Amino acid sequence: MSDTFRAILVTRDEEKKQSVSVSEISEADLMEGDVTVAVEATTVNYKDGLAITGKAPVIRRFPMVPGIDFAGTVLKSGHSRWKEGDKVILNGWGVGETHMGAYAARARVNGDWLVGLPESMSVQQAMAIGTAGYTAMLCVMALERHGITPERGPVVVTGAAGGVGSVAVSLLSRLGHHVIASTGRTSEETYLKDLGATEIISRDELSGPARPLGKERWAGGVDAVGSHTLANVLSMTSYGGAVAACGLAQGMDLPASVAPFILRGVSLLGVDSVMAPLALREEAWRRLAADLDPAKLAALSTTIGFGEIMETAGAIVEGRVRGRVVVDMG
Length: 330
Ligand code: NDP
Prior knowledge:
By secondary structure, this protein is an alpha/beta fold. Helices cover 30% and strands 27% of the residues. The structure holds NADPH dihydro-nicotinamide-adenine-dinucleotide phosphate (NDP). Residues 45-47, 131-132, 135, 159-165, 183-185, 203, 207, 224-225, 229, 246-250, 271-274, 316, 319, 321 line the site of NADPH dihydro-nicotinamide-adenine-dinucleotide phosphate. One of its GO terms (molecular function) is acryloyl-CoA reductase (NADPH) activity.
């Protein structure tokens, strides 16, 4: 294996202007860690789009190799859980933000951050899921812990044609829920119905200012959008229901009232994937291997090469990417 390898490198000049280039780096440029991994597949999440375009301050150390997710094979390990040849997945933990990330042929990380690749999954399938899909699973598990069963009534998924949304629609429908998919791309109706959505509603129904309480339309929700959309989802959640909130595609604000909480006993369940404890991650990946239909996963993902990462980063922040993107590093 050669000493240098290609990586996307984000640098910042004295005026704090960010530049992105494809560079040759070596293991000496990587950061501290006890496991070195050959990155075989990665992906482009919304957060990667923000990092590469510089539209939000995701990167907190320069220079940085962006990319918050990877799957690959262990090359070297000083960690008791991992040995050369093991197949592993990494999601989050500040990788691609404060620790050199996935958009390079090799990564060196803390072995505590890694999860074993489920036996039934390829590295490409793991990255078709990626942080977005693993977060969708965390949202589904949060709803389950709150007792949101299919018998309780429909569930709504916002940002449905995006990464988190597409995986959430597929999972919830496979688990027997009546899924209402909210999207700004009504042209994606067939796509969303093929993933398992029962009803499609326009994003416009949820994106304006919310009334304190609306008509009870769903027992639960997975929200990747935040802002007015989350406020509307809460106001239309039925008595005792719950909404798992994980995203901010519309905005980071939450212009809501307390009425759904104090008059309907609705719960807002916060979901974070980045610092989620290992046991929860392992459970999420076990459930993804068991509950996500591989045919649906194939239908919601497209594959690109390393050279297309930057263009895709721009497209995802503009809401032009459907479902999930796998980057095959081969
Ligand atoms: P995508 O870009 O793939 O999906 C976001 C979707 O949100 C879009 O496809 C679009 O869906 C919808 N959307 C975009 N802009 C707006 C808008 N202005 N108003 C309403 N809806 C909008 O991103 P991901 O699925 O990768 O991530 C979704 C969100 O979840 C992001 O905010 C991301 O940062 C967050 N996230 C959080 C995690 C956590 O740990 N909490 C982990 C992973 C993601 P449509 O076209 O169907 O309307």
